[in-house]
Structures are given as C-alpha cells and as structure tokens.
## 1
Amino acid sequence: AIAKNTAKLKPQHIRRQGRSIQPAAGAVQSLLQFRPNQNMSTYDFIYKLVTTLMINNNAFAYPYWTQRGLEAIWPVNCTRGDIVQDNSGVLFVRFIFGAGEQVVIPYSEVIHLRRHFYDGDIWGAANTTLDTTLEAIHTSEEGLGNAIKTSGSLRGIIKYQGLLKDEDIKKNRDRFVNEYMTVSNEGGIAALDSKADYIELKGEPKIASAAQMKELRTSIYRYYGVSEGIVQGDYDENEWNAFYSSTIEPLAIQMSQEFTAKLFTGNEMNRGNEIIFSANRLAYASNDTKVKMAKE
C-alpha cells in the first residue's frame, strides 16, 4: 500500500531562480518522468525502490553515467551490502548479489534511502521489532487452520477387552485409523464390536479471538504508518491526508534530497537545480472540498 501510493509521486527536475521555480528540460527530466531505465517505468522504479526500503529499511539506486550524460538509474537488487573504507577515508559500498558476484562503488555515487536510521552511521536498522508480532499472527493462523481440520475428526482411545500383544494393539489401532479417522470417513462414525470400547477425547482448540487478531494487525499498521482503510483502499479524504502527511510526504522529502545530492554537482545545486517528488493532493479531495476551493 505504501509503495503503490508513493509510486504515484511525480519526479521533476526544477530550477529555482530567486522566488520562482522553473521546470527544467534535459536527460535527467526525461529519465525521471518516463523511464529511469530500459526495464522499468517511473511507477515501477519508485514502487520497487520503496518496497525494498520498507522490507530492508535500506534501498539503493545506481545512476549510470556515460560521456553523453545520465543514461539510466537502476535500483540495486542485492542480497547484501557492506560499507568499506580505503586508506584515505573514502567510503565505498560493496554489493553482493545472489550468485556471489560483488561490485564495489563509491558511496557518494549511489542513491541511498533508509528508515529507522538511529543505531549506525550508514545503515537503517532492521525490522526485528516486528518479529514477535508476525510470529504471533503466523501461529494464530496456523492454529485456526488446525482447528478447522480437527473439528470434524475423531479423537480418542480404543480400550480392548482382555490382554493383547503389543503388535496386535498397534495393528488394530492402525486399521481403525485408516478406516474411520481419515477424510474418506465423511459421516464421522466408527463401528466396533464388543471386544473393544471407544472413548472419545473432547478438546476445544484454543485460537486467538477476533479482537486479538485485530490488535495484532493494528500493531503492524501502526509500525508502518498506515491504516486498515489505506491497506484495503477504502479511505476518506481525512484518512488519506493523514497517511500522506505522516508516511508518503517524508518519503518524498527524503527522495527529493537524496536524488538532488547524487544527480547534481555542488555547482549545479548552487545554480538552483533540484529534484522534487510531488503529488496532486487535490485528486484525493472530496467533491465538497474541490467546490469550496473553486469558490474561494
């Protein structure tokens, strides 16, 4: 939900001149507006970058330059990244990919987005605080599935009259299980002769209540700054504005600053060159709000 809505942002190359803002033309604008690389649209590019950021709390993109200028911007889909430093103190990032390939690039040349940036100098912290909640949800769903499977099954003890050898007890038990305690026994009825008694074991499976499951889901929504309405696509104007201000806008600011710093030189930034990620927030306003704004 966060990625698909953030991907609606419109990246623009602008140039600030005094108090005026002018749209800029050129390779940077063309790439950002239509196709950052040959395999991805702008929507796909932002979607993949933000998805990686939400899952790993770190996301990288590599601007590919040639003598003609900026040719493409590629999201880095690595299995691991390490920060290394040379003898002069320059930082590099080592990307390790699925088949073991490694690429080392100056850190100053890659776009780096991060979340939960507090306990390290470079990396955003992992989502380990979610592990307990996710495990509880997984266990609850497994318990519900097992409860459904066992609710119509026979569970009990067979008591035989007289003494039987261990192998005979096992043989009779296996025959009983195969004939009566499988899905083919649709009636749920078992038949025994007078030599054996069946004692049913009743047990009520313990599963999480609806209120408990809702609280578990809500804790994840809070962690990511979304609501159930946003996840399900059923939200009103106020809910959208809250989601935009608290979750999407911070991403837009972070991407604007990082793309600007990595796509322009210091002199170009001093001349007012900047990348911004903007949204038409009026598109999500109610008709009453639009009419009111038009009147005003």
## 2
Amino acid sequence: AFTGSAIQVFGAKNSGTGTEAKTITAGTGITISAGTGFIQVAATGSGATVIPRSYLAGCTLSKNAATTVGITACMTTSDDQTTVMNATGAFTKTFAAWAVGSGNGGLDTGAIAATTWYHVFQIVRTDTSVADYLISTSATAPTLPASYTKQRRLGSIRTDATPAILAFTQDGD
C-alpha cells in the first residue's frame, strides 16, 4: 500500500509516447491491462497494489486424509490474467460434491474414482470476490459452480485403487 497521491509502474509501455512507465493516481480506478506485464489489484482510497501476470503465492497442496486435500492461504491471478483471487486462510476440500467453504466437498462433477488424476483449482466469484477451491478431472475446463467465473489450476493429484489420494510432495509452483 502507499500513502502518496500516485505510483509509477515500470514494465508497462505507453503505446502513445513509448515511455516505459505508467502513473497511477490513487482513487482513479485506472487498470493496467494484462499483457503489459502487470495487473492492478486495487487503486482506491490511499492504497494501490500492482502484481505481476501469472502471480501465485502460497497455494501449497497437501494430503490431509484419504480423501481430503489441504490448501494453504493462496493468492493468484486467474488463468486468463484478468482477476486476482485471494483466500487468506487455509482450506480443506473433500472428494464429495462441491459446496462453498472449507471442510466441504470439492468435486465439480461425479464421485471419486479409482486410479484417476484430479486437478485442484482456485476459483472466484467476481461479483463478491469470494474465493474457494474445486477438484476436477479436467486440467483445463472444470465445471465451475454457479456464479463462479474465474479459475486457476494449482496442481494435480492422483487416487489409488481404493480410491484414496496417493501420497505426494509439491515441488515449487
């Protein structure tokens, strides 16, 4: 956050003047479009935050139980680079039908299957900024719950023959 009246963002080339910086004045709501190197998260009141494209912080996946995935606090940009998604606390999701909130189901469709790859996504409702998580067999096109319009794949996990989540280690992003 900043308390001044404006910030300079470098890496955003101004197509009209060719300059390498863009000035953002607090409270103006100016958005730096994706593709310029940055996405503006907020510029209201006296604070502005600018984050890089493809941003991912936190979001560590873990096996909490045979059919429960843990996700640490997580902040990402959506896979289309237009929306910031932020879940400030740790979550767990089970392999039951999806329901909003930690400790609830995470599957987008169907029931848990044996020896199957699943992909964990952070999702968000852009109308309320509520972030949650979804588990899908699709790596690129999960079935999003009603009103959730943005997604970002965090990682993949596999079930064994019982079916239960196989032990795994997450290495980096």
## 3
Amino acid sequence: MKLSKFLLPVIAVAVFAIYLSLFVVKEINQAIVLQFGDPKKIISEPGLQVKIPFIQTVVKYDDRILPLDTLPLGVTMKDNRRFDVDAFARWRIMDVKAFRKAVGSGGANAAASRLEQILNAELRTTLGEVKSSALLSVDRVNLMNSIRDAAKEKASALGVDIIDVR
C-alpha cells in the first residue's frame, strides 16, 4: 500500500516530464528549438522530436509557399502617366535561423509586412523607369521577372525566397 502511494506520484511526474519534452513537427512545418532565446537546433524533417522541458522552447514556421497580396499602389511611369498597380507575390521561408533573427517573434505576419515594403519599393523603382505601354506589351513578363529578382535579392536578408511576382 505504501509503495503505491509513492510510486503513483513518481509515475505521474515522469509521464508529465516526457509529455513536456516531446513535440511533433508536421510535414508542412519547419521548427527551431530555442534555448533561452538562442537557436540551438533547426528541424526541417517531420516527425517526433525531443527538447529539454522548461529550458528549450519550440517555434514552428510554415514550410509551404505563402501568398503576399499587396494593397493597390500608385505608380508614376516614365511618361508621367499614373497607374494603380495591384501586385501579389509567392514566397517561402528558406533559412529559419535568419528568418527568426530578422523578424523575431512576429513570424509570417511581420515578414509579410516587410516583404510588402520591399515589393512596393521595387515596383516603384522598376515601373518608374519604363513607359506605360510596356505594361501592356510582351515586356510585361520581363518587368515582372526584373521586379522579382530585385525583391528576391533584398528579401534574402530576411531568410525568405520570393518565388513569383505578378
């Protein structure tokens, strides 16, 4: 009888400690294990993982291609015609450690806000150097690729890859 009074709480504490030390990374996620805020381990493979309870925390990020829809932006073209440009982009987190360092605990929402600023700046820069007729010609594809490449270069500092801009 006395053994069960002692053994039951020990088993309960052990089960609770195991519960706190295990976590699952899904196929659609990447995870970073933080120890007192410092990155210790990056996990990109799905499955059951282990962490030190109370000392390490896990932050999960989406590993899928994410949308970014910008608000309409007024752009003045080279021939002084003004257009409202509605653009969207597709992006993905490539470097979780750099992403965490760049956006902190804000996650995908903070990154989307910064990516929108980058994309809007590149839209203004690129479209401000061409005439309005280029938007309605076959050069439009080259313009989109130019905007994507310039934005991709700046967004790499955030640990993300811009896949497409339209």
